[in-house]
Design brief:
This protein has 511 residues and is an alpha/beta fold. It contains 19 helices and 16 strands. The strands form two sheets. It has an eight-stranded parallel β-barrel, surrounded by eight helices. Helix 5 packs parallel to helix 6, helix 10 crosses helix 19 and helix 13 packs parallel to helix 14. It is elongated. The chain starts with 6 loop residues before the first strand and ends in an 11-residue tail after the last helix. About 2% of the residues have low confidence. The structure holds ligand 3NM and magnesium ion.
């Protein structure tokens, strides 16, 4: 039997989630709204009560032609004529359940990690419930939170096993994140078959509307997250398009919404103006709902993160994600403190970033892996292995399905397929404050004007920025970092002006 796993409802009968509603009525409404599979999960009731409710749910699901599975209790599944069971890692083992229920039963298994997934898949499970994706109050003692990266790791492994097993993700999923989770979890060869939710439907005021909303979200890949136009590998072809993109930026003057740190606000606004963008420094998340509709891009720079700031970032990221406005994440000091490490996780589980930029430490923190063995508190530890850096950037971009830029003497830029090393820039950029942050501002403005190929947009921003720095650093009137800053702003402005006159001479310095 081919099953549609796209919207998998797991029930909960607790006061905290179901409240005073009647479970069978909630399930019926949910099925009418578009739920495609129902799992009856009740961790507290006695067997007689389970069978009583199970029979009611069987009647409802049968009427609507939707499969019914029972959590944990194989005997209850048999008693009510369910289509199968869902087994947690502490429940009856898969082989025993298969022998009892026979070959036609649907038997799903919970998988938190690679080995649980491999064991269940090899054992012939019908599907895997992969989780816990995000923290959820619904289930007590969940194992580790694996995020979309963890789901993707499991899907990648399953695709190498060449097995016809279905998959759903579970844990903390709701209408604000299902599209992104489906998109970001997608392994090269296979994505999730659906998502499983509890509270997003059972705790909803209107379970039918909640189910209908989820069902329609699941089917759509958000415009902003469409895969990168990765067909263009040729550097010359990419470079040839940059003057036109710089010119377009000046013509469109996109809104560049910065939620950035206290140190660089003024400088970032000046950089945005000089390149031809229209800056706004707005840290209040509620405002983003209006700003996101203006066709610009958002920079989230957590250089001076606070609890309030985090809440504001999340509202803004969601507002931009909703309308497909590009979001650039600059995880400043990501590895420096526990608060920052946690903030990175919180932000990444709450939204999609079109581009993540950072230095080596920041990018390795976001990836969760280090290139080199960290020695004590030596945060400056660095590798000189260029190909290792390029691989790391590529890996993170492939994992997040976005574009990643690692800045340094050489910058590495990747969309998970194409990876480039860029060697432009000037030493003085390292001697002034906010040069990394304002590069983020610059790239965001380019993402707003050039939507077709995010990597190309980023490349245009990086080259404009770094070549302007080279030109400024070489000027006779520039004696050091102090005189460099105004000269740098001037050169950014000049490049913008020359591009508007179709002069692309500046780009000859690209390397
Ligand atoms: N199993 P909600 S998480 C039943 O990780 C269940 O295996 C999980 O609830 C797992 O959709 C979970 O309300 C609860 O976050 C999911
Ligand atoms: Mg269980």
């Amino acid at each position: 039997m081919a099953i549609d796993y796209s919207l998998y409802l797991v029930t909960d009968s607790t006061q905290a989630i179901l409240g005073d509603k009647d479970l069978a009525s909630v399930v019926e409404a949910a099925v009418e709204g578009g739920v495609t599979v129902v799992q009856y999960r009740d961790k507290k009731s006695e067997t007689a009560d389970l069978i009583r409710m199970g029979k009611r749910l069987r009647a409802i699901t049968k009427k609507h032609n939707v499969p019914l599975l029972i959590n944990d209790h194989v005997g209850v599944a048999q008693a009510v004529g369910a289509d199968g069971v869902h087994l947690g890692q502490e429940d009856m083992d898969l082989g025993t359940a298969q022998r009892i229920l026979g070959p036609d039963a649907i038997i799903g298994v919970t998988a938190n990690n690679l080995s649980e997934a491999v064991v269940a898949a090899s054992g012939g499970a019908s599907y895997l419930g992969i989780g816990t994706v995000y923290a959820t109050p619904t289930k007590e003692n969940t194992k580790s939170i694996i995020g979309t990266a963890g789901v993707k790791r499991i899907l990648d492994r399953l695709s190498t096993m060449d097995m016809a097993i279905s998959t759903v993700a579970i844990g903390g999923l709701n209408d604000s994140n299902v599209q992104r989770v489906m998109f970001q979890s997608k392994a090269p060869s296979k994505g999730l078959d659906g998502v499983a939710v509890v509270s997003a439907i059972i705790a909803a005021q209107d379970p039918k509307a909640a189910a209908a909303g989820l069902r329609s979200s699941i089917g759509k890949v958000p415009v902003s997250m469409s895969p990168n136009a990765g067909e263009n590998q040729n550097v010359e072809t990419l470079l040839s398009q940059i003057p036109r993109i710089v010119k377009e930026l000046g013509v469109k003057s996109p809104l560049c919404h910065n939620m950035t740190n206290l140190v660089v606000q003024n400088f970032a606004a000046n950089v945005a103006l000089c390149i031809g963008a229209s800056p706004i420094m707005a840290n209040y998340g509620e405002e983003a709902k209006d700003l996101a509709g203006l066709g610009g891009a958002l920079v989230v720079n957590m250089g001076t993160v606070t609890p309030d700031g985090l809440t504001n970032y999340i509202s803004a990221i969601r507002a931009y994600n909703e309308v497909g406005g590009p979001v650039l994440f600059d995880p400043v000091g990501a590895g420096a403190t526990a608060v920052r490490r946690q903030s990175v996780k919180t932000l990444m589980s709450n939204g999609y970033f079109d581009l993540i930029k950072g230095n080596e430490n920041e990018i390795t923190t976001v990836l969760g892996e280090s290139l080199v063995q960290q020695k004590g508190v030596d945060m400056g530890a660095s590798t000189t292995d260029e190909s290792a850096k390029a691989q790391l950037v590529k890996k993170l971009a492939a994992r997040e399905r976005n574009v990643v830029l690692m800045t340094g003497k050489t910058d590495y830029l990747s969309d998970g397929e194409r990876t480039y090393a860029i060697k432009n820039g000037h030493d003085y950029l390292g001697n002034i404050t906010g040069s990394g942050c304002t590069l983020g501002t610059t790239i965001a403005a380019f993402l707003a004007v050039h939507k077709g190929d995010k990597l190309l947009a980023a490349l245009a921003g990086i080259l404009m920025y770094e070549i302007a720095a080279e030109q400024a650093g070489e000027r006779e009137d520039v004696k050091g970092p102090g005189t460099f800053v105004p000269a740098f702003l001037d050169q950014l402005y000049r490049i913008a002006q020359s591009a508007s006159k179709d002069d692309s001479e500046w780009l000859r310095a690209a390397n």
